[in-house]
Amino acid sequence: MAGHPKKKHSHAVQGKRRSHLALKAVALTPCPQCGTLKRPHEACARCGTYRGRRIITIKTKRAAPGPA
Ligand SMILES: [Zn+2]
Q1: Cys-Cys with 37: which of 12, 28, 41, 44 at CB 3.0–4.6 Å?
Q2: Environment of ion ligand 1 (residues, CB < 5 A)
């Protein structure tokens, strides 16, 4: 038998525990190449660059802006 709680947690204790569970808004920074908001430390989803270099090719119908 595993350990079992001796007392029922009150609704106040339940609320205190859940006070840390809220989701935060996603952090966004402008891409230095195209200005699109992107998540930091990730390649830009619009122009495919990271730290000034194109590292991924964006497959879209529209031509991706930025350095060739
Ligand atoms: Zn970009």
Answers
A1: 28
A2: 31, 33-34, 36, 44, 46-47
CB 60 within 8 A of CB 41: no
Task: Give the number of other Cβ atoms within 10 Å of residue 47's Cβ.
Answer: 21
Confidence of residue 56 (pLDDT cuts 50, 70, 90): confident
Q: Is 52 within 8 Å of 32 (Cβ atoms)?
A: yes
Ligand 1 center to residue 24 CA distance, Å? 24
- How far does residue 14's CA lie from ligand 1's centre (Å)? 43
- How is the chain split into domains, by residue range? 25-68
**What are the tens digits of pLDDT across the range 21-32?**
999 999 999 999
Instruction: Please tell me the pTM assigned to this model.
Output: 0.56
